[in-house]
Amino acid sequence: MNLILLHPSDLDHQGHACITDARRLAHLRDIHRAALGDRLTVGVQGGLMGKAQLVELTTELAVFALDPLADVPPPALPVHLVLALPRPRMLARTLEHVTALGVKEITLLHTKRVEKSYWQSPELLPEKIHQHLVLGLEQSRDTQLPSVTLTKGFRPFLEEQLPALLRGRRGLVAHPGMPMACPRGISDNTLLLVGPEGGFIPWEVEKLLDAGCEGMHLGPRILRVETAVTALLSRLF
Ligand code: SAH
């Protein structure tokens, strides 16, 4: 928690913020080893960031006196990430990583090699997804939550969503063995598609290329989804 992310409801009108939840209190105590008078970095969800002084700390609550907040969060990456739904633990970590890296639009997609049972996982409950996004924002000092869309059919995605997603975006499909190497340092608005742990099937790749996406590879090493996504985002942007 390099940033204490405040919910607008944590704030009063006198420039104070009060947090009472066990997670943030434990983090303040155990990781920050916070003491009265400490000045910490805070940010308001969806808003500005700045410094705040810890003015009260008990086992039940922490109260901060906020400086006038004036810092804008870091810029977002120009990418909409389409991720074939990985296994729940990998999903949790991947959501944190990509949020920390600045992705603001995420679609979780069903493809042939996604285990159907993953769609029943409690990790997909809105509050669980929210938790991982918040951890990513706190890690990277950002306040803007990404949006996450669940798309449980590949064909409906192809027919109903992909054409609109590709309008004004460069579509890039990460797939080992493609002839083109992953581009570096681009500033194009991008739609980045990453396959499941078993990869995209040839038919899916063909359909994505037919729709106007470019296939690309990251070299001969096959990476886990969470590693591949991190490597792809760093190399692309
Ligand atoms: N078993 C699959 C690989 C799956 S890796 C296969 O051999 O094709 C999971 C996903 O990460 C892939 O679908 C791809 O989107 C991405 N990925 C991992 N390593 C990659 C590489 N070297 N080049 C391009 N994409 C890669």
UniProtKB/TrEMBL annotation:
Keyword S-adenosyl-L-methionine appears in the UniProt entry: yes
Listed GO MF terms: methyltransferase activity
Residues covered by the Ribosomal RNA small subunit methyltransferase E methyltransferase domain: 76-236
Protein name stated in the entry: Ribosomal RNA small subunit methyltransferase E
GO annotation, biological process: methylation
Alphabetic keyword roster: Cytoplasm, Methyltransferase, rRNA processing, S-adenosyl-L-methionine, Transferase
Family of the protein in this entry: Belongs to the RNA methyltransferase RsmE family.
Claim: Ribosomal protein is one of the keywords in the record: no
